[in-house]
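User: Can you write out an input/output pair for a complex, sequences first and structure second?

Assistant: Here is one pair. Inputs:
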Amino acid sequence: SAVISQKPSRDICQRGTSLTIQCQVDSQVTMMFWYRQQPGQSLTLIATANQGSEATYESGFVIDKFPISRPNLTFSTLTVSNMSPEDSSIYLCSVTSADTYEQYFGPGTRLTVT
Amino acid sequence: DQQVKQNSPSLSVQEGRISILNCDYTNSMFDYFLWYKKYPAEGPTFLISISSIKDKNEDGRFTVFLNKSAKHLSLHIVPSQPGDSAVYFCAASVGFGNEKLTFGTGTRLTIIP
């Protein structure tokens, strides 16, 4: 399975600011995804990060709020813009294994917005 | 609209006994199902999966059963061990591999020594 790291692991941010979360994979992968897990909730897909083109966003998520970059096959960033307390969540990136096609997740970034 | 549901938010099982976690889905287009385990402060860890062409898949202590007519799947853990204490999520996708996953709400399993 792929080894996935995320930075930062946690952060406390003020309302109205932005935070960029990084996701690094130890091998080239085709598909990378960004998920959110709000307190007490399930994981919800935000978007698919496409290498060389714009991300594909799920219903309820927009590029202005969650801009995503994917400059190469091992790295992606998710920015949470103009944050509000409702953005307090765990943000996770995931990748699809080229060998098994299973999805593997990073350790997550715990974001608290005050 | 919660397309994947885990109706039991928590479950306690004696060590050595069988743990059975249940999951129901409503979208008949789902044809690939996965179970993940999540410890606090970690990302979900893939456990086992099953395609809709099968009704059972086994991997060591973990077995997943799929009942397509009932739109129901279950994860059996035998025997249960203290390290199995975690939150378990079932997930479903339309298609295999590079498709988005729809997750259930999770079941917190506690194994009692």
